[in-house]
């Protein structure tokens, strides 16, 4: 018998270039990604993002975190691209 793992419900917040490329400010997403890096890879493939992971910061529940940070259902994840100022 094979057990199926339910996807996690994650809120994703998009900023700057990622907001433009995804066409949305946020979304609630069902995912099997186990950490922040896997979630970013999943989203980058879907939305054809051109920013490499090493150019971004990630935050879970409003706190910056490493890319290997594990995800839990109900988390709020933000990917923050570099900000150009002038």
TrEMBL record:
* Family annotation (InterPro entries): Beta-grasp_dom_sf, MOCS2A, Mopterin_synth/thiamin_S_b, ThiS/MoaD-like
Q: Name the source's superkingdom.
A: Bacteria
Cite the SUPFAM superfamilies for this sequence.
MoaD/ThiS
Record keywords, A-Z? Nucleotide-binding
Instruction: Give the record's family classification.
Output: Belongs to the MoaD family.
Entry's NCBIfam families? moaD
Q: What is this protein called?
A: Molybdopterin synthase sulfur carrier subunit
